[in-house]
Structures are given as C-alpha cells and as structure tokens.
C-alpha cells in the first residue's frame, strides 16, 4: 500500500484587530489620547529585564505557575466576555504543558491594575507569573483589553499590552493575549490565534460524507466550507490565509480547486489532462505544487498562479507525491517509491538534484517542512504500526512522537513547536472507524485531542499561519 495525503466568508472581523504595545501608568493614558486623535496604532517594546524563561526545547520539567486575576471591567462590558477571556487565556497556556494555572480559589485578594501587587502574597501561593487585565467598552461596539504580566520573584513587570477589537471578536482577543504571554515567557512564536482546516467525516464508514471544515486551534467555532454533495480532501492554507487549496471530486472528476475564504468563491485550478491531487502552496503564495497522473505515472508539478503555467519537477517511472516546500522556497520534500519502497526525498528546485533522506526500517510518507526550517515531520509505517515523527532536513536525528493503528498527515503550528495529525482507532467490530485530530509537542510529550462534535470524525488537518 502506498499511502499519501489523498487518503464563507466566515472570518471574524478580527482581521481589524489592532495590536499595540503600550507603556505603564500615565504613559499608557497619554498614548491612548494620542491614538484617538491620530487614529494610529504605534508599537512600543518594553525591555525584558527579568530572566524568567521556559526551556522550550527540552520541555519544562516543572511547569511555570501562572496566576490570572479576575479581569476588571469598565463600561458596558459583558461579564460573560470577561470570564471567557480569562478562561481561554488559561486554557491556551495550560494546553502547552509548559504552564500550570494557579487555582482561582488560592488567589490572594484582587488588585486593580495601576496598583502594585503584593508579591509576597502571590509568592505564597507559588505563583511565578501574575497576569492582570482590564476589559473596557469603547465607542463603535469595540473592546479594549489591557494586560500586565509580572515576574513575581523579581517583582518586575515583563510585558504590557493593549488590544482593540470589536466585541464579537472577544475570543480572538483572548488568543492574542495568550500568544503575547507565551512569546514573552518562551521566546518562541505563539500559535493560539490560529485555525485548523480539516475534513469532517460523518455517517457510517461504508457511506461517509466528507466536508471541508474550519475551526479555531482549540476546536471552537467549527463551521463548514463545503456542502455534503461533493467529496473533498487535502485542504491547505495559502500563506496569507485568504485561500484554501483542496482536492475535489466534483462530478466524479478528481481535480484541485481553490476556495476564497472571504467570498466563498471556488475555482478549478486548471485543465491538466489527468487526475491531480496533494496540492500545497509555495511559501510566497505564488505557486502551487501538486501531483498529476499522466499515462499511469504520478509526478509532481508546480503551477504558477499568475502565468497559469505548469512545470514538471519529478521524472522517471516511479510514483511521486506529497510535496512540501522548505520555508525559503528553494527545496521540496516529497515521497517516492523510486528505490522500491516508499521513502522521503528532497528536491533542489534550482538545480533539480534529488536526494533520498530516509533509510530507516519501514516506509515513510507525507513530509511536512517546519516553518523554521529545522525539521521535517513525516508519517512512518513499520511492523503494522503507523507513527508520526520528525527529523532534520538531512534525514538525521529521527524522533518518533506518536504511534498507533493508523495515523497520518502531520501539519505544523506557527513557531514549529507543535503538530496536528489525525489518528484512526481500530474498531472492535472491524468495520466502524473513529478518527480524532490530535496535537503533539516536538518533545513527544503533551499529546491531546482537539474536541469535535460527537458525530464528527476529523481527518487531514492543516494548521494555519497566524491570523492576519
């Protein structure tokens, strides 16, 4: 069996979220007045003085303890929104396995922003980080979320920001706030303000309906992007988050299509004279790599979106598929059976040279280059077990992150810290199949399932870049 990844305007107006880095106390108030006059959003960076850091490579042996105060509210603010923001920030941070959220029952007396916390009291409840926040209602149906982050041990403020968005985008405010805290404490790119597109399967295994769906990275806000009539597979985001490319079996003709996320418009990519599948955008969004079957042979091609031209990238009589660009767009990982067994290869797009990088026992497929270029994730099958793993771009330092009866389609979060993939459980009756979308850390720790509705099976997930 050769395994591969063939196997609406619904955006919130959070696009218009304006992010400001702000200063403390009176300087913050002055800054806000200036912004109201000039209608500008200016970025201020607060120097990092404290040395509180998470060892993100090894994983924290003992998670950093974070206390999140009850959020202050000013004006016509929904108490449910304030509670939701606090809950989401806590859940985002705790989901990483790098942080422990201090129980609310253990928190000392509430301290308003602008007043210096009593760090001795916070240290007594073993809090290493204190987060204060205030949610204010502004004109035009907007929220302003201000927050301070304190290093309890050094008694220093290590982050302060102000975020503005429409009230209906309050949940995104929470994710952006969690990203800011995560980035300050780890030095890595946050991934909470992101989405996942996947194939939602419903119905009995012998008659499954496959619909393209999208949700926040924590499973919230699931919505469908395709109807029940058309069989779809292999969705992937464009770098600017405006388009999704996917395989559609419309009219029983398997072809690559694109979906505009703002307008909902779908377009066929082109007439290529054969079945095409496994599409991926290039890092600059100007090209789409895909597999195309001609005369019974499957090769990888590159489609130039502007010129509408098609360039063949692989040659010979082998089966080549699952292309994945390197972050700089100069190389492409793919899998091929040209050696007699399915393995992963790397193609230099300038010279055309191809190098095999996997030599381990078993078969390798579905390579996915990490955003930072340091890893290639893969699916491996050996001894009747499927595995998700990572290795460096030369095929060295292979590390298995998860294993099971069937799992496939690893996809990277921004920052290259986590992956999503799907796992299908072996049914006791040998017929029914239940598929889950899971997330795993690059250390192989902290695997968790992204919750879906009870009647939905999730397969072929792809993690988005950070939202615009």
Write the topology of this structure.
Elements: E1 18-21, H1 26-38, E2 64-68, E3 72-74, H2 79-95, E4 99-101, H3 119-124, E5 129-138, E6 142-151, E7 156-166, H4 170-186, E8 195-202, E9 209-216, E10 223-224, E11 232-237, E12 243-248, E13 255-260, E14 266-268, E15 276-281, E16 287-294, E17 297-304, E18 309-312, E19 320-325, E20 331-336, E21 343-348, E22 354-356, E23 363-369, E24 376-382, E25 385-391, E26 399-404, E27 406-412, E28 418-425, E29 434-441, E30 448-449, E31 457-463
Parallel strand pairs: 2-4, 2-5, 3-5
Antiparallel strand pairs: 1-7, 5-6, 6-7, 8-9, 8-31, 9-10, 11-12, 12-13, 13-14, 15-16, 16-17, 17-18, 19-20, 20-21, 21-22, 23-24, 24-25, 25-26, 27-28, 28-29, 29-30
Helix pairs in contact: 2-4
